[in-house]
What does this fold into?
Amino acid sequence: MARKKKNSNIEQISELKKEGYVIDPVTGQEVKATPERVEAKLIFAERLINEYGYSKDQIQTFPEFYIQKGSMKIGPADIVVFKDTKKTFCDGDGGGGMG
It folds into this structure.
């Protein structure tokens, strides 16, 4: 009996994953399994894709995106959702994207 493709993909991912690492749902890369990533970052990334319908190309989780306002660097963002797949972000007027 032939196995379903979905099961074999899950097995392949499990074989790739090293102990102490998880697969980032956006990039498909192995990333170190920290509490922040496992309990928040990866869960929200999956929800953005599966529940809110954002394309993986609109989301950046790794490497972290550094926020800058004018000349002041604010710091890294764990997850960034861009307005489109060209990774354009809105100017803060509510004209697309989140925030």
In short: The CA atoms of residues 58 and 85 lie 5 Å apart. The helical segments are 5-16, 35-50. DSSP finds two helices and six strands in the chain. The longest helix spans residues 35-50.
